[in-house]
Design brief:
The chain is mostly helical. The protein is built from four helices and no strands. The chain has one domain. Helix content is 67%, strand content 0%.
């Protein structure tokens, strides 16, 4: 039996992965600033900004699917959360 993605998304996220989400959000925000204001910064920052947006968004999204250890065995046994 697999753990459905919707249940993983809405399950409680461990503290470390909440930290990863915050770092991902900060990276995406900095990248958005670099892309939004290319005239005030050197051209290299514009390219780096695109990468920061991608990395930050992916880190924040993927870390949301991490679940605590005690939740997953209950689902495998057929118990509801």
């Amino acid at each position: 039996m697999s753990f459905p993605a919707v249940q993983r998304f809405f399950s409680k996220t461990p503290a470390f992965f909440q930290y990863v989400q915050s770092i991902g959000g900060v990276c995406a925000a900095i990248g958005a600033y670099f892309v939004k204001y290319p005239d005030t910064l050197p051209q290299q920052y514009n390219a780096v900004g695109g990468y920061l947006i991608a990395v930050g968004a992916i880190a924040a999204f993927v870390s949301q699917f991490a679940i605590q250890n005690n939740v997953y065995p209950n689902i495998l046994l057929g118990n509801k959360i």
